[in-house]
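Our preliminary data section would be incomplete without showing what the modeling component actually yields. Below, a chain of 170 amino acids is followed by its predicted structure, encoded as tokens that our downstream tools consume directly.
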Amino acid sequence: MDAVTIRRATAADARAIAAAHVASWRWAYRGQLPDDLLDGLSVEEREAGWRSALELDDAGVYVALREDVVVGFASGMASRDDDALAGTGEVLTVYVLQDEAGKGTGRDLLVAVQEDLRRRGFTRARLWVLETNTRARAFYERQGWTWDGTRGDHQVACANRPIVRYATDL
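Predicted structure:
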């Protein structure tokens, strides 16, 4: 098996990122989000959103490729939190296909986004994760992130889902 390659994403990657986004949500959130929501996810809808995001200068989106196929992606930008101090970035996404779980691909993507945030002058970073997503929470904790005690909720399919915020110094 070829090694994974991490590189900055371009607008040409939008469709592949959207496909990976849908596939990764379906396996990662099965049992945490409603099946009808997961089964109804649209690559076309996600593609439009990713194309728009990738056209921004501060997108900070990275893809993981194995044999020239996108097998994961991650993104980061300035924190959107109201209580964020100057110099606080945010990891928005880290997703891998199910076959990539446990191979270090997610870790490599997270490192790429953290390095990107650091290069852009951020000194700390935050991220939000579903409170019930024990797999993701354990992953972030293994990477040195800690829950900062903040809880919130995320609107998904007309229902609020509890989320928790993790933080780290860059």
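Residues 84 and 126 are 9 Å apart (CA to CA). Helices lie at 14-28, 35-39, 43-54, 105-119, 134-142. Preliminary results of this kind motivate Aim 1 of the renewal.
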